[in-house]
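Q: I have 957 residues here and want to know how they pack in 3D. Can you give me a structure?
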Amino acid sequence: MSETHRYDAALAAEIEARWQDHWERHGTYETPNPSGDLAGDPEVVARPKKFIMDMFPYPSGAGLHVGHPLGYIATDVYARFHRMSGHNVLHALGFDAFGLPAEQYAVQTGTHPRISTEANIRTYRTQLRRLGLGYDPRRSFATIDPDYYRWTQWIFLRIFDSWYDREAGRARPIAELVERFESGEQPTPDGRPWSALSAAERAEVLSDHRLAYASQAPVNWCPGLGTVLANEEVTADGRSERGNFPVFKANLRQWNMRITAYADRLIDDLDSVEWPEAIKRAQRNWIGRSTGARVDFPIDGGGARAGDGDAGGVVTVFTTRQDTLFGATYMVLAPEHPLVGDVVPAAWPEGTAAAWTGGHATPAEAVASYRKQAAAKSEVERQAEAKEKTGVFTGAYATNPVNGERIPVFIADYVLLGYGTGAIMAVPAHDSRDFAFARAFELPMRCVVEPVDGRGTDPAAWDESFNAADARIINSAAPGISLDGLSVPEAKERINAWLSERGAGEGTVNFRLRDWLFSRQRYWGEPFPIVYDEDGVAHALPDEMLPLELPEIDNYAPRTFDPDDADTEPETPLSRKDDWVNVVLDLGDGPKRYRRETNTMPNWAGSCWYQLRYLDPRNDRALVDPEIERYWMGPREGMPTGGVDLYIGGSEHAVLHLLYARFWQKVLFDLGHVSSAEPYHKLFNQGMIQAYVYRDSRGFPVPAAEVEEVGDGDGWMYEGQPVKRELGKIGKSLKNVVSPDEVFAAYGADTLRLYEMAMGPLDVSRPWETRAVVGQFRLLQRIWRNVLDEATGEVAVVEDEPDDTTLRAMHKAIHGVSQDLEQLRFNTAIAKITELNNHVTKVPRVPRAVAETLVLLAAPLAPHIAEELWRRLGHEESVVWAPFPVADQNYVTDETVTCVVQVKGKIRARLEVAPTVSETELEEMALAAPGVREALGGAGIRKVIVRAPKLVNIVPA
């Protein structure tokens, strides 16, 4: 027999390339909008719509490995299924192209980041096209395109020009706040009229309200790299992930986003979206809403006692256990707390314990030394339950507002500036960390929550602190206030009222969430559209000056310093481009000299809003046409806050990208630019494709492709030496990369698509097995043979009607595959297609109706071979738009099912019964079965358990 028409790797490659060219030439995947530049067929627009998205890929220089396409194939299958099911489907892919890797490469090689990034994008596009992914090519873009980041900058300016009105519960233009200040409706902080404030003073007042603002902020400063790092770029031992340099906490002027204003809405609106519960829980925990009280502690600075004057102020703490306020015996500030420097006196107060000073002659020396020590630790280290608690007395004292007691103020690294207010009232009897600290520094402890475990009320005799929410309050009375005898909830309510009446605090809600640090000391990022005047006041560039493009520079590296020198500050690459930094601009009041912002935006900026650009990618007049946005993302039944219909990506972005994108979407919603309050309605986290890593005797990875298996999977050898095998990520460093190009060459893209979808449930990680890929290749070969004669290449189907058995097999497959594709159960859909195909293989002459159904069921999963077979079956239109089969329910339900009858757990009969048989009928039939009567032998029956229609279990008396 000639092999000319056999489906092999060469034929697969030829078919796939031909159909990819056809799709591109005919605009097969171009999705019409209801209006605008991409408006199209009204009949298609009138269909139900589906907006399906993948998480943005970052185009690395290594190209794709077989683990990357898992989510892309999944969304493509889902999109194809819904296109065939009568939907107008928007499916597009762009590239998240700003970021550190390209900048690192530029620093090493001198190659402009744009050149290397665009080359990487071309490689990705070639590989993604080879997979047959049905993206609308007109809607693709990269975040580095000026036409794209023009709108990233535009959104930033809308956020900069907004404030959060808590009474209205939404963002409003900053101009409305200015009007309130001008009219006196809202007083200025110091009570002066708005007109009496200078321009710089007004700017400072507004900065305290803007949703995007610049301020001194604690950051991860890495002198060895010359840049500030995000938390995820710092290892658990406080060093940079790249280069392993020390990382210090430093207060630097940075741009921030006031995401904390949206904390409540970010939590509450999680109830409106269909997300994995684990992701919702991660966001709720990250935002960390807790109910407690704000308490103000006056600080005298200790200077009055030392004869150096009052260095006073007020420190505010947030506590969820305000009922224990009488038990506060000292206070702790985070080492970075901005008031630390203000409250430190010139000399130690008389009688200061030696253990409190850290061996230093003055408070200033002690504080400076300890702050440097704390800055060298990561937050993880500082929060760890260390046996030894460290800290130092500031020399200042605070006054407990509830009883007037003066308590010492310490700094200690177990308190973080980023949590609460960066200050705590220490109640050592009822908090484990405070207990350990008090023991270490011989500080007093007072029991104010009555122990219920019999330990007594003297903390000096305890081995650990005591805390309970269902105990009674004791030792908590002062003139005008007593909590004694109250339950914890009652005490909280009473102390809240007392604090509020006296202006010493109030009951409040606090959040763990901090404002979003939004600037980086790097070159390869979106420039801020901000300039500063001679007084340092920030001004937004007018929209007509956007985009502000990155200038060409000679050196892409930030200035680096001695890795151990924490007393340094960043020098950004842009700051060295003097003719770009210092400019004369007319911002509406005549030409003036300005200085540009020389930080750039973080890589998260571009991915905060890219779902909106897919909708209207050619619009140069607006962020997005309102009609188009409402059509694709607006609220509708079952989706009260709107958003993308399906978003697939990794769970690692739970509290970064996903949280930031939700924040930006809500600001745009509040300002009336979009109708959807949430960016992504349904989220699905795909698992990870892993691969085996082989390590030599030193533990170093060796090339996986060169490892030989010995025995029956009992061991592995590399260059004659035994190696150990483990399952891990796919990556160059682990030497286990498998390129999709290798699979394309051996089997074709449809086989790769089928294999990745058949490996297991989409949300579960699974190991890559190159040897197992051939199984899906053989399935495609069998489908090919069921439609075509391999000897002639002619269609081998007949026009006969299928027999009843085949009709049932076909409609069951249609029913099952439809349900599985809708629910993203691609592995079980493939199993049902395989089952039908196996049935068809046994049919002497395959009826056309069955062959066409088989092709249509396979089309979303293996589109190239499906297109080829569909065309050879005589259809002129693309299978992409062919209607997906609909099951006839008369053939889906079995005429009979087999019911197993057990007596004392052993099978005694099998009955063929109707699927709709009642429990009563089934019990009668079971008891009448000869095998059952014989097994019972005349014995009585104690119990009959019926699970219609498949099981009856009889328990004899």
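Q: Anything worth noting?
A: The longest helix spans residues 804-822. Residues 289-511 form a domain with the Isoleucyl-tRNA Synthetase; domain 2 fold (CATH 3.90.740.10).
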